[in-house]
């Protein structure tokens, strides 16, 4: 388990194949992913976690497995999708149902902000969520993101509230 960041209750870890079954509890769950283009199959999830591992190796920044210290279980994923450049990255987070409403997503999202600040290459972080996902939108506001308006997203085929966090 390669830990990249630690909070009071959580570890952010580089993904590895042994996390596949745990990750299925959120990325493979229809209810969890209902507002995020739906659940993914085991094959897709395996490709995703391998992609995030390679992203970390190439950029020292990625999306990470979130492990709860007390239970020693993977309860979610949080981190950054990187497309063209490290200057502008996208914050994402997804958590298993059993970990909802316990503050884990906020704690992990704050940890991700610290990772980006420590990285040095990130200048701007963006984030969005389905307009019905009020919990996620509240987290973005709570951790200091600024609402920039509604923006169309081709992947979700809808307008979503769009937020930014400026690092420099």
Could you explain how this protein is built, in words?
By secondary structure, the chain is α+β, with helices and mostly antiparallel strands. It has a single domain, classed as Gcn5-related N-acetyltransferase (GNAT) (Aminopeptidase, 3-Layer(aba) Sandwich), CATH 3.40.630. Helices cover 30% and strands 32% of the residues. It has helices at residues 20-27, 42-59, 104-119, 134-142, and strands spanning 3-6, 10-13, 63-68, 73-81, 88-95, 124-128, 146-153, 158-166. An eight-stranded mixed sheet has the order 1-2-3-4-5-6-8-7, sandwiched between helices. A hairpin with a 4-residue loop joins β7 (146-153) and β8. α1 crosses α2. The protein is globular and about 40 Å long.
Give, in order, the helices and strands: EEHHEEEHEHEE
CATH class categorisation: Alpha Beta
Based on secondary structure, the structural category is alpha+beta
Which homologous superfamily in CATH is the superfamily? Gcn5-related N-acetyltransferase (GNAT)
The main sheet comes to:
8 strands, mixed
Strand order of the largest sheet: 1-2-3-4-5-6-8-7
For the record, give the distance between the C-alpha atoms at the N and C termini, rounded to a whole number. Answer: 32 Å
Query: The CATH topology is what?
Result: Aminopeptidase
- Runs in which pLDDT lies below 50 for 5 or more consecutive residues are none
Measured as a percent range, the helix fraction is: 25-40%
Instruction: Examine the secondary-structure arrangement and name the CATH architecture.
Output: 3-Layer(aba) Sandwich
The amount of beta strand, in percent, is 25-35%
User: What is the residue-mean pLDDT, rounded to a whole number?
Assistant: 94
Radius of gyration: 15 Å
The shape is: globular
What's the number of domains? 1
Helix run count: 4
């Amino acid at each position: 388990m390669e830990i990249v960041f630690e909070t009071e209750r959580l570890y952010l870890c580089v993904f590895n194949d042994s996390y596949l079954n745990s990750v299925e509890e959120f990325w493979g769950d229809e209810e969890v992913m209902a507002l995020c283009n739906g659940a993914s199959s085991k094959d897709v999830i395996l490709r995703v976690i391998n992609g995030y591992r390679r992203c970390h190796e190439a950029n020292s920044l990625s999306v990470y497995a979130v492990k709860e210290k007390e239970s020693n279980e993977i309860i979610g994923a949080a981190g950054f999708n990187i497309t063209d450049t490290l200057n502008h990255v996208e914050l994402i987070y997804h958590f298993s149902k059993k970990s909802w409403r316990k503050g884990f997503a906020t704690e992990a999202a704050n940890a991700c902000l610290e990772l980006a600040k420590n990285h040095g290459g990130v200048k701007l972080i963006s984030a969005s969520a389905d307009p019905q996902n009020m919990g996620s939108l509240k987290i973005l506001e709570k951790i200091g993101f600024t609402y920039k308006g509604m923006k169309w997203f081709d992947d979700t085929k809808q307008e979503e509230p769009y937020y930014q966090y400026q690092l420099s």
